[in-house]
Amino acid sequence: MNPEYVEIRKKAAARGKYAPLHRYLAALTEDSWRASFRQVEEILNFPLPDSARLYPAWWSNGGVHSHALAWVAAGFRVRPKMDHEAVVFERCDAAETAAAASSPRFDLDREWPALPGNPWPAGFTGSREQMYEDEGR
């Protein structure tokens, strides 16, 4: 991975909304830290979003979102324990951190490719104004 990119991501993690978590993890001397969601919220000084409690995917190690960037840039991966409202942060080696930080990004064309549609029926015409008018708006 490009070293400049790694530095940019670290700087972004240190300045973002989840920077307190990033700083906490970066300062840890232990190789792992088990924390309740409440402990994470205390470090952040704001509540986690509902999706953090409902969806394990929120805790993804991809580093695409600002919250994930906080732990990935600090050199950690995370394992959520949804039944216990807890999470385990585990230090990973440099190669693993680089791999997580460079995970493939969401690509709409790859995930949901456009399919060729049928042509409009002969004689069909339509406009935005007509659609709204037809819907009573």
Write up this protein.
By secondary structure, this protein is α+β, with helices and mostly antiparallel strands. It has one domain (3-105). 45% of the residues lie in helices and 12% in strands. It contains eight helices and three strands. Helix 1 crosses helix 5 (66-72). The protein is elongated.
Poorly predicted regions: none
Side by side, the strands of the main sheet go: 1-3-2
What order do the SSEs take from the amino end to the carboxyl end, as H and E? Answer: HHEHHHEEHHH
Percent strand equals 5-15%
Rg, Å, rounded: 22 Å
Count of strand segments: 3
**How far do the termini sit from each other?**
52 Å
Largest sheet: 3 strands, antiparallel
Task: Name the shape in a single word.
Answer: elongated
Helix content: 40-55%
Q: Number of helix segments?
A: 8
How many domains in all? Answer: 1
User: What's the rounded overall pLDDT mean?
Assistant: 80
